[in-house]
Amino acid sequence: MTSSARLDTVRRLATPEGCVIDLRLAGPVVRARAWLIDFLIRLAVWLLLVLVASRLGDFGAGLLLLAAFLLEWLYPTAFEVWFHGQTPGKKACGLAVVHDDGRPLGGNAAFIRNTLRAIDFLPLLYATGFVSSLLNADGKRLGDLAAGTLVVHVESGRRPVVSGSIEVGSEPPPCALSREEQLVLIEFSQRAPRLTPERAAELAAAAAPLVAGVDGEAGALRLRRIGNFLLGSREG
Q1: Average pLDDT of 176-200?
Q2: Exposure class string for 118-136: b at 16+ Cβ within 10 A, else e
Q3: Which segments of the chain are extended strands (E)?
Q4: Predicted pLDDT at 8
Q5: What is the sign of the dihedral through the CA atoms of 105, 106, 108 and 110?
Q6: Under a CB-based contact definition with an 8 Å cutoff, are residues 89 and 34 in contact?
Q7: 22 has which bridge partners?
Q8: Using omega within 30 degrees of 0 as the cis cutoff, is the peptide bond preceding 160 cis?
Q9: Torsion angle of C-alpha atoms 107, 28, 152, 213, degrees rounded to 10
Q10: By CB neighbour count within 10 A (0-12 exposed, 13-18 middle, 19+ buried), where does 66 fall?
Q11: Per residue in 25-64, pLDDT tens?
């Protein structure tokens, strides 16, 4: 495997039927965003139930305990099983949970991965799960490792840009760059067409001073133009 392939998050799988599928793995940032959306949804439901339960006395207190259990444990499992591996937060972020071989998520795997969220959460704010995802080539937290699952980007119908398909042009860098920084930008401009748009944008975000004012794919394109400018000046 080449170094450029390791930069990307695409996992290519061959099915028993002889088909080849590409799974685009989700990183910790977009997964955290999906979790936050789901948390806000559950919080809104919880606050609504608090208003209702406050009028029901002791019965209301029991209702809140039951609701807390269902929101914490049933909410993610039920959505992932019945809605193609997507909670509302994952759907909003274009993510889904699948088995390691690309099959749709099953009930047992959904139960295992969500039950182990209690361990991934330790000691605070999913610190264990975050460290696990950084140490794992597929970005898996402990629940994913135990359940044999992956969190992937859902195909939106937009095809990644292939090498040589467009001419992005060139532009000078907005500030002075060291030799090492110039080499990194040149390498990025050459490898970016072979990356998925999401991975290219994620890498471009690390060069905040150079992409100030733009983000996402626009930021990646700016870095490619700067890299092309630097490459042209070196060749000239």
Answers
A1: 81
A2: eebeeeeebebbeebbeee
A3: 10-14, 20-25, 95-99, 149-153
A4: 59
A5: positive
A6: yes
A7: 12
A8: no
A9: 140
A10: exposed
A11: 998 889 999 999 999 999 999 999 999 888 887 788 888 8
| CB-based contact 99:155 (threshold 8 Å) | no
What's the longest Cα–Cα distance across the chain? Answer: 80
Q: Can you say whether the dihedral through the CA atoms of 78, 79, 84, 85 is positive or negative? A: negative
The answer to whether 71 touches 46, Cβ cutoff 8 Å, is yes
Q: Which pLDDT score is estimated for 5?
A: 41
Q: Which of 88, 98, 107, 5 minimizes the C-alpha distance to 43?
A: 88
Question: Which residue carries 């392939």 as its tokens?
Answer: 5
Q: Give the number of residues written for the chain.
A: 236
Per-residue pLDDT at 165: 41
Quick check: helix, strand or coil at residue 159? coil
Check: pTM over 0.85? Answer yes or no. Answer: no
Both structure tokens of 182: 């110039």
31 contacts 151 by C-beta, under 8 angstroms? yes
CB 198 within 8 A of CB 153: yes
Give dist(CA 77, CA 231) in Å, integer. Answer: 50
At position 80, the amino acid (one-letter code) is: E
Over the range 177-216, which residues count as b (16 or more CB within 10 Å of their CB) and which as e?
beeeebebbbebbebbbbbbbbbbbbbbeebeebbeeeee
Tokens standing for 108? Answer: 């047992």
20 pLDDT more than 70: no
User: Strands 10-14 and 95-99, how do they pair?
Assistant: unpaired
